[in-house]
Amino acid sequence: MSKIEFLAHLDEIMEQEPGTLKSGEALKDLPKWDSMTVVQFIAFADEEFNLALPSSKLLSCKTVDDLAELLNPHVTG
């Protein structure tokens, strides 16, 4: 999956218009990044890539790019 496709999926999870998120954005600055979104992101990683994300790694993410890195090598670019 490309980084652009990843961002589109993240927009969908956050119920935003496609193209809203940009690389490098800080999660703390995203009004729709909340506990429900975190749960949906975990479900996305499990369903799409069969990955069980450790909560400690997810909690250490500060940016959208950090989230993409958690899904490495499945998200490229």
Structural class: mainly alpha
Rounded radius of gyration (Å)? 11 Å
* CATH architecture label: Orthogonal Bundle
The gross shape turns out to be globular
H-E string: HHHH
Count of distinct structural domains: 1
**Low-confidence spans: pLDDT under 50, at least 5 residues?**
none
CATH class: Mainly Alpha
State the separation between the terminal residues, measured CA to CA.
9 Å
Number of separate helices: 4
**CATH homologous superfamily (4th level) name:** ACP-like
Major β-sheet annotation: none
CATH fold descriptor: Non-ribosomal Peptide Synthetase Peptidyl Carrier Protein, Chain A
Q: How many beta-strand elements?
A: 0
- Name the helicity range: 40-55%
Oligomer: single chain
Mean pLDDT: 93
How much of the residues is beta strand, in percent?
A: under 5%
